[in-house]
Design goal:
Blueprint: H1 5-20, H2 26-34, E1 55-56, E2 62-63, H3 66-75, E3 83-87, H4 93-100, E4 104-109, H5 112-124, E5 131-134, E6 147-152, H6 161-165, E7 167-177, E8 182-189, E9 195-203
Parallel strand pairs: 3-4, 3-6, 4-5, 6-7
Antiparallel strand pairs: 1-2, 7-8, 8-9
Helix pairs in contact: 1-2
Bound molecules: S-adenosyl-L-homocysteine.
Length: 213
């Protein structure tokens, strides 16, 4: 597990590409410049790790495209100390970005293989969420609710009510909604019963799976 100045150079280039695509949050860009993404993917893709692309990881899943990770992180306006629920740990790359933004992260993954692998790997390179959970993102994490922010990193066929219910007043849920492609949708909780909804463009995610293995 090596990180070199060549990797650093490629990360700086990736940050420049993300700026050109509209990412402006300096903390998010610094996280992209810092996190060794090549360690999160299979070594056969290492040479491509700093392209703005998604790649296959284990269990037929993907590491999200850097632009998507940056966009979701920037949109949620993560602040130091925010209590954040992440649905879809996957490779842990988005988790690492949230931790660089100094969030307190609870991350749920429904595939055992990825849960095991990533919960061992991330702490090894210095990223320690509050908790990795092997579970089902559709039900959220009631025992730790309410959250400042909830981020879903798989395509949801509908918006799960428990996720809305587990937001603080003023909290934000960012979730890609749809089947083949998804509309990135932001919900802001205005009061116990009122949510503001914003649709933020089309994205493509692997589907959010309904049943546990
Ligand atoms: N943020 C991750 C994205 C991984 S892809 C990364 O950048 O690596 C989406 C992830 O969501 C996959 O790991 C998939 O197994 C997981 N997932 C799918 N359905 C889920 C569910 N119902 N609950 C929790 N995780 C789920």
């Amino acid at each position: 597990m090596k990180d070199t100045s060549k990797h650093q150079g490629l990360r700086n280039q990736l940050a420049t590409i993300l700026i050109a695509k509209g990412i402006v949050d300096a903390n998010v860009l610094n996280a992209i410049r810092k996190i060794p993404r090549h360690l999160f993917i299979d070594s056969s893709f290492e040479n491509h790790a700093y392209q703005d692309k998604a790649f296959p990881i284990a269990a037929e899943q993907t590491i999200s495209q850097p632009y998507t990770v940056a966009f979701q992180s920037q949109t949620l306006e993560i602040k130091s100390g925010d209590k954040v629920l992440e649905i879809g740990t996957g490779s842990g790359y988005q988790t690492a970005v949230l931790l660089e933004l100094k969030a307190e992260v609870y991350s749920i993954e429904r595939q055992q293989e990825l849960f095991k692998r990533t919960s061992l790997f991330l702490p090894k390179i210095g990223y320690k969420p509050k908790k990795f959970i092997f579970g089902d993102g559709y039900i959220g994490l009631k025992e730790q609710a309410p959250f400042d922010k909830i981020i879903v990193t798989a395509g949801a066929p509908f918006v799960p009510n428990p996720l809305l219910a587990q937001l603080k007043i003023g909290g934000k849920l960012l979730i890609p909604v749809g089947d083949k492609t998804q509309i990135m949708t932001l919900f802001i909780r205005k009061s116990a019963k009122e949510f503001e909804k914003h649709e933020l463009g089309d994205f493509a995610f692997v589907p959010m799976l309904e049943e546990k293995n």
